[in-house]
Amino acid sequence: MAPWRTAARETLIADRWLTLHADTCVTAEGVEIAPYYVTDYPDWALIVALDDADNILMIEQYRHARGIVSLELPGGGIDASDADLLAGARRELLEETGCVADTWELVASLSSNPAIHTNRCHAILARGTRVTAQPHDEPSERVRRQWMPITDVVRRAMSGEVQQAVHVAALAIVLGRLNRWHPT
After folding, report:
1. Which of 17, 145, 164, 180 has an alpha carbon 20 to 30 Å from 63's alpha carbon atom?
2. Directed axis angle between helix 165-177 and helix 150-158, to 10°?
3. How far apart are CA 76 and CA 45, in angstroms?
4. Tens-place pLDDT, residues 83-127
5. pLDDT score of 184
6. pTM > 0.85: yes or no
7. Mean pLDDT estimate for the chain
């Protein structure tokens, strides 16, 4: 299957959170598709953080677009100023939860929606996670930390209580690799 050709691009929004483009695309068959919207976001780190008792750090956070309090993994955008992906993940975990971890491992890199998003979501395993500080005071990110046994997290993900699909995917991949994705 051949990729489409971008005949024209108009940038509609460009700020620190996202860039939105309206592309004029031409398929391999010569069919024009316009506008075709493409969003650029920074890459995201999704952190499966385990403590020494084998609990996962989950957070609850208000998500305005859906108007819900969401149960999810800690994480967030990788900044251009981060030295690398794992440095960004360390920064996000500390800022959002006040936690640090002893070991870090990139497990998988996923696309949340390759049809319209250009970024990747990186599933990262952090072991030896512990609280060392208060979370940063960020008005748009008021989170509540929750340490949960792995079986509870899997059950809640399987029942739909974890709403963010890419978070469920990250959990399944990381815990599957650890042979711990077992619904109760």
Report:
1. 180
2. 140
3. 5
4. 999 999 999 999 999 999 999 999 999 999 999 999 999 999 999
5. 63
6. yes
7. 95
Question: Which amino acid, residue 47?
Answer: I
Tokens describing residue 85: 């992906």
What is the model's pLDDT at position 24? 98
Cβ 161 vs Cβ 183: under 8 Å: no
Catalogue the E-assigned strands of 16-166: 19-26, 32-40, 44-50, 55-63, 68-72, 75-77, 99-100, 103-110, 121-127, 130-131, 143-149
Distances (CA, A) of 34 to 2, 31, 49, 55: 18, 10, 42, 48
Q: Break the chain into its structural domains and give their ranges.
A: 5-40, 44-177
pLDDT tens profile 33-49: 999 999 999 999 999 99
Task: List Cα–Cα distances, 129 to 51, 54, 99, 140, in angstroms.
Answer: 5, 10, 6, 24
How many whole angstroms separate alpha carbon 9 and alpha carbon 62?
34
* Residue matched to tokens 């506008």: 35
What's the burial of 74, exposed, middle or buried (CB within 10 Å: 0-12/13-18/19+)? Answer: buried
Q: Is 84 helix (H, G, I), strand (E, B) or coil?
A: coil
Task: Give the residue among 88, 83, 95, 105 at the shortest CA–CA distance from 45.
Answer: 88
